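tool=predict chain=A
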Amino acid sequence: MGRRAFFAIGVVLIGGAVGAGTTEWKAPASARAVKNPVDAALGVKLGQGLFRENCVICHGKAGKGDGEAAAAMKPRPTSLIERSVQAQTDGELFWKISEGRGAMPGWKSISEKERWSLVHYLRALAEKR
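tool=predict ok
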């Protein structure tokens, strides 16, 4: 069984048990000023594949929080194309991808370059809406 399938099963089984609640999720102030060191064009390309492999199951193909595992999750995954998400700095998004919260795992298992690439891809998703 692949990592994605295992994670999806875990989300369905524990859904609301690990929900992040209703408190606002803020990255620490130190994350705000951290700049993305990955070239944007390269990052979008690399990030797209990573997003499909790791994020679509919950956040959906367009990043709207409507992936196939989303219905079983409380709270539901965030729409990554919303203004409130896109208004965050690259450093804040990188921190959230790295640390995770509730049902969203921290993605320190992938390289920093890959996590920064996901940030670039999240920006590109919002531009498509």
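Residues 5-20 have pLDDT under 50 and may be disordered. Residues 60 and 67 are 4 Å apart (CA to CA).
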